[in-house]
Specification:
globular; homotetramer; 6-stranded antiparallel sheet; manganese (chains A, B, C, D); 449 residues; 17 helices; 47% helix; alpha/beta
Chain lengths: 449, 449, 449, 449
């Protein structure tokens, strides 16, 4: 039985996103009878935890709420009897992300911290940690829901489902909601007047849109999108898609599809950023320093506007809405990462997919999607295969698997360059890749070249 | 664009169910801006159409509504520019159903007017007529939704999808809602406090139930069901299921599963009814005569209580709610017959299934179900195969196909008896089976034995 | 590495079939460099083992071969370092089969010792024993191939694959080869001039036939079959199929399909046999007594003609050919029971199917079949589901599973009668059903009714 | 009924490969009772046809055979009542291949005349022609088998199956047989002592190998391959694979996988060849000139050794063996491109795949393969999707489809470069792309950029 008053724990509570999360809870105070919010972080994040944690406390107080906000480095204490656990941690902090992006770029290839070489390394670092968290949850709060925003959200969620033997996990991302907001605006509709159907993988999904009269308006949005200059997502460079190719797709791509459909221009742009020391990771690091400066202000009692630029807009709407929907069995229509079970016929039955779902008290129930047209199908299938091999590499620390994952990833050119980047990144992230210790030693010894 | 004021046509408008339908519309008057209701029937049903049509008019007037109620024998006029078309007709009227039930029983086998020998003949008579209606709709109201209650609702809906080349069709049945109502009562919950997940075929589905806290309560309901004597459905004999077998299923069966799980007792009961001239068809015919007597009363201005016994309880909640949900994009969770598209992995991609769906302005979006356990899987697969062969027989008038359908139907023993019953029924329904004319002639001539 | 001289062990070596097996080996003496043949049996079968074993020795000697024929009750000694193990044992001997057939018939339902109520009980008795044999094999001869003829061959083979965790198993049956021989004769061809493609389950498969010019001759054979009175199989009653239904199938059924397509007549015939104490089991028992009398004759040095009537014709061609094909990587085209792996798209990926395969040194490689038409599909799917549930019941001894298997088996009417027959058979076979001990006690105590 | 004496027609009969084909027929003269060989070519190929045709005549005469060798430009006359039709034509001749390879390389991307940008253009040019040939065959020799070697053999065969509505087609390639020959040699076995199981697409397949004792020797071959320097295929640059990645695959790749697994080195090598005007197409053109000089020699009466360098070694063993196997129902184990029908579970049911098959009188029956591991699965799935979109573009002449195919092809970087290369190639091949006429005009007018 769910408790009358909730305990919510956030792993990576010292994140700059936390104020948005708190704002989201406050907005839903009537739906979410929170008792305790536990913000957890690690020793290295202690200072940030205190800064943002104190802001969180001020926000709660300012809203006139009696919620307890706890700041702690003791994860197990935070998890104990929690009702919901959200994860937004970053193993190796932003410095690791800078390596994820800069090392590949230094060899002239995309870093892409979610599904490219960078994202694979983020998976290598994160998956052992999330499985450790799940192990604790099974002991300390076996009935809690795990809401994961940690990227690469698709792979991390699949690892929990397949290797953590834990079903109550939902992966979440703010990309779909940003599309919904922008696209409804583009055709002069309120977001609630449209039905969106998403299908694919995290940062690799397409969607169709219908109006309330049942007419498909996907093409209409497409044409408006081609005319418009609106930016969907802060964190990726917005080059116009090729209209003929998108029309042929018959579905709306997500912003991240630029990496696949317009690889050369995206790479060119990132190399420019790399040369100016302005990769996304570096930009974010700068933004975060500024944000934390703001957060320190004892007079700040609400989420500052500047957070929007960070790239996580609508996370509150996504994460808090998900928690509220599960708690209240709201049957909201949301896009989440969850177990496929045949909702997408072209992908393995037991893998994780990102799909429009109804959020019930029993968790997400995916709306069936069926089959893709070939152009989407082939792409999403190779991405899923890459995700599976990456996860296996993250679990086993096997060099062949890691090299395989690099080889089949469409964002990484295969051959010598893949091997070089892989080896360099393994060494660079040594501290956070205990499972690869032996392999890294061999690289350092020149046994693996 | 959907019109501001709606035109709704009902084929088989002279049915005794009509008052419930009208009541359902009236209940939803704020959601459904109806302008015209057209009740259509055929020459033989003219008298009943007038009786029930006049009651409908009195009901609408009594509710203080300005809706026009038209009674007509001209189907094309009724369909013209309609927004919704519902079908509740019965080719050959109740006398045909009496034959559907009595002929098999006279040979000691179940009639079962939905999925047994009787149901197959109902499909043979109905499918050519519904395809004719769809042909008219494509000409006269191509954007209207067809809401089909005519049994066998699964086969009729599949025929429209596959052979009518018409996507805007939804099949509907009152069995799921009856289960929902009873089962929530059994465990002391309000129906809205539970999440029901249905999967299968019309009159051959199973379901799981969850509470708002996400706990599966299927077993709890099962155990209460075993203790209780409550009747789920008026129209089928309620013998207790074998507890061990149902527990092994792991899902709740529907009332009609008694025909498959308890065949011998069901047959015994029907043979008793047959001997007393009290088959369900004969009982219903008597009930209908009484109902129409009641309906004639010019002082009757609401749906009479006695209609409940007829067996169609909650049709109003189902049918009118479906129409209101599509019109208003309500995203209600309902159980409907719609195209599979992989929602049920164990059944063909393009067939019709009965499945929990979200009803949007663009029609039903099935909630993905995935795979069944073997015990459900095998049954639902042979039933679907039987449906497919039956539909093919109904379309082609091929004797081999009809015999095949009889042979593989689990409710019909195969061999000489199947052949004898098939031949006798073909001859008995001759008038309503033009597609089988040649075959019937051969039977009458003794060329087919 | 396979040895130069082979050790072959036969579990159930005291079977009346053994002379045919020995004949088969002798026929293939140039392909099969046998060193030792071990015939194993249990204490109760000792006498028969000696009789038939001595005949085997005389046959080998008569053929001028130096093969050693060992007779033993020590299974482990026989299995030690064997190269091939064949199984043809019968738990409970023919008396158990008599119960399998007579108990259901005493309640007016088919016994059918392979896939009906009788076959399910044969599975309950056999599966624990075969798993025990496999356990020994994994220890004593882990590289040997297990060639299983023990019925129900499909379920027994699936149990080994799924629950025995042993891949080197092939199930074998003489039905396909009998069809091949008869059908080629029917259209005046040599059996090698035709290409047969079989697909389905043991005793539940269909096939297509092509001539060497690539023309499908399935229909041609069908029409000849309708004209002919030839008997395909000795052991089942040969009632003519309904021509229209078989034509609609588009594939040739197997002899056992009479139980499914002509249930009433088959039942009528079996009830007549039951009343005359001449069920197949009783007939076989009589035949066996006669056979063993013949076998005793010290002058008999070859397989006696009378064995043909026993019903196992062509077992030698099937079993010895399989062993010779594996040993010599002959790439023969044979019909065997093996793991599906998608060869039959309509059945689970990991189940056992009976399918035309190429027999290589690495075992059978199934020829891909693809999808069935609906009439075959539905039948084979429910049969497979029944097999899966039966196997689970055999493994777990769970009463609900056993009742479920009875309920969904198309040859067993469901309801009280199924339950009554199940309970009576459980008690009757008590001695050979240790896994059901608790359940049987409850039936005897009246706790299960 | 197949005739006693055969008529075989070869479209593209003027090809330099023809002598090998003739040699193959001669080698099989006892199995193939040939009456007439028709070599067909187009006006532009007349001279080569005469040269190679006369060599063919001399070869036949030299072998002491009475076969008629006809040289013709009249395709319809050649097809009339043919028993087998083989296709080895090249639309636009080698000059078109030079463009296929050089244009992409001039922009720094791989040409790859089978599955890369070059191969897609070869498909665009060839598919309309093959469909035209099939149209003639349906009229003039509807029972003949079409044996296609024209590259891209996978796409061309799929186009015939899907859009030509013609089932009697088999695609053929010499890559598998070259692997078989080399790999058996590597481990010191005769090719007939091993069982090879291939699965995938043309020029994109993997295989497993077993010895006659049933042991998998895939890894053994892998390790020998890593040690060896043997060249499998003349026509592709043989860079060593990364051992760790291949071991992780668990299957042996084909030579063409270098393009996918070692893209950067392969590109580097091709750019060097490009700069030296020594792309494969240019080399082949030179070789062909030399070969035709040799062919002119009236004293040459056998296939000259130099043909081996051309890159088509073992085509005779493949093509003539296929024809002989079908004609004689030899049930040979060969690797062919044929309809999937579920043999490879990870690819669409109705697509063409390259798979180990048994060649019967009724054509190839694929050996079931089942599912790939993720690393193979993702690659083969995107390649199939690319093939499907390419075929659609070839049929429709739609620019969006062509751009889509370029975008998702793993050998073509996406974005501006893909578009530039596509446009340039469309214009360059204008003469042979009537279906793209409107699109090409727009490119020339600057309406498409």
């Amino acid at each position: 039985m769910i408790k009358d008053r909730l305990k919510i724990a956030t792993i990576g509570g010292g994140s700059s996103y936390t104020p948005e999360l708190i704002e989201g809870y406050i907005k839903r105070k009537d739906e979410l009878p929170i008792k305790e919010i536990w913000l957890v972080d690690i020793e290295e994040g202690k200072e940030k935890l205190e800064i943002v944690g104190n802001l969180a406390k001020r926000m709660v107080e300012n809203a006139g709420l009696d919620w307890e906000v706890h700041l702690t480095l003791d994860r197990r204490e935070a998890l104990k009897e929690a009702d919901f656990v959200s994860t937004q941690f970053r193993v190796g902090l932003l410095d690791a992300r800078i390596k994820d992006e800069r090392i590949p770029l230094s060899h002239g290839i995309l870093g892409q911290e979610t599904n490219g070489a960078g994202g694979m390394f983020k998976a290598f670092r994160t998956i052992p940690v999330i499985l450790d968290i799940v192990k604790d949850m099974k002991e300390l709060c076996p009935n809690a829901w795990l809401v994961n925003f940690t990227n690469p959200a698709g792979m991390v969620t699949e690892a929990v489902l397949k290797y953590g033997d834990f079903e109550k996990v939902v992966g979440l991302c703010n990309v779909p909601i940003n599309h919904n907001m922008l696209e409804s605006k583009l055709i002069g509709k309120d977001v609630n007047e449209l039905v969106f159907q998403y299908a694919g993988l995290n940062h690799h999904h397409w969607h169709k849109v219908f109006d309330k009269e049942g007419n498909e308006v996907t093409s209409l949005i497409m044409e408006e999108m081609f005319k418009s200059n609106e930016q969907v997502l802060e964190n990726i460079h917005e080059i116009p898609f090729f209209e003929e190719q998108i029309r042929d797709l018959g579905m709306l791509p997500c912003g991240y599809h630029r990496y696949y459909y317009l690889t050369d221009d995206m790479l060119k742009n990132e190399i420019e950023e790399f040369q100016k020391n302005a990769t996304r990771a570096e930009t974010v690091k700068k933004l975060e320093t500024e944000l934390f400066e703001l957060y320190k202000d004892p007079n700040l009692k609400v989420k500052p506007e500047q957070l929007t630029k960070r790239g996580g807009t609508y996370y509150s709407d996504a994460a808090c809405e998900l928690i509220a929907s599960i708690y209240n069995d709201k049957r909201t229509d949301m896009v989440v990462t969850t177990r496929n079970n045949g909702a997408l016929d072209d992908l393995p039955y037991d893998c994780a997919v990102e799909v429009s779902s109804i959020i019930t008290g029993a968790g997400p129930m995916p709306i069936n999607f069926g089959k893709f047209a070939p152009a989407e199908r082939g792409m999403v299938q190779i991405m899923k295969a890459m995700e599976e091999v990456t996860i296996e590499a993250a679990i086993t620390g096997d060099y062949g698997k890691a090299l395989q994952a690099f080889t089949i990833n469409p964002l990484v050119p295969s051959g010598k360059i893949a091997r070089t980047v892989l080896n360099e990144m393994l060494v660079a992230h040594k501290k956070h890749l205990p499972q690869f210790a032996e392999v890294i030693e061999k690289i350092e010894n020149g046994e693996i070249k």
